């Protein structure tokens, strides 16, 4: 029963060819904007350093992968709002004997699956770009580590969006949320504006934000294979972290916080404190 519901969501996702196209188009637009507009400026700041082009490209790729890990899980929840609008949720509860809070968890699981697959596809494209341009091969243990780190970020993002989208009632409000998330994800990963150039209060926020923490250790993991001499302080300013334990602790804590919030929300809903809309 539960597997059938998840499979149904995944089938609806794969049948929406136009939706998939625009979903991946958004990912690749970020990559193209970097390659054709931002890349030369970043490289120019470190032009006297050997292998700087390879370093900057790899640094940016790491950030873009983490952006996709944050944004792609959101796509699954538009189906939830469409099901609410067409009263399909009531049909699932009555005809398939699915509990409302269980349905929410199934949407979240669907989100994790879709987000993980999207992140994997985008990572392969980015790593292929590095391989073709620099003969820099990260199709080894590093790709497994990068995907593992970012899969944790996918899970965190899915939990956060599961909590937030429960307060949305229309697809138009979802579109607004999607636009906001797409914009903020780049800044909150320290990719669109580097960590060292952000105001202090933003740096303090990023220090406890999983999206930035995972991006930072992804950068370190990928650039470790590049022979480039950059001072440690500059690496920190660029959002490169060597503190794996801290990053995973922050990510795990955020997971736990939102699991608790979701459980509280479900309990309140069971007592009728939330409108079903």
UniProtKB/TrEMBL annotation:
UniProt keyword annotations, A-Z: Membrane, Transmembrane, Transmembrane helix
Name of the molecule in the record: ABC transporter permease
Membrane-spanning ranges: 20-38, 59-78, 106-132, 144-164, 176-195, 248-264
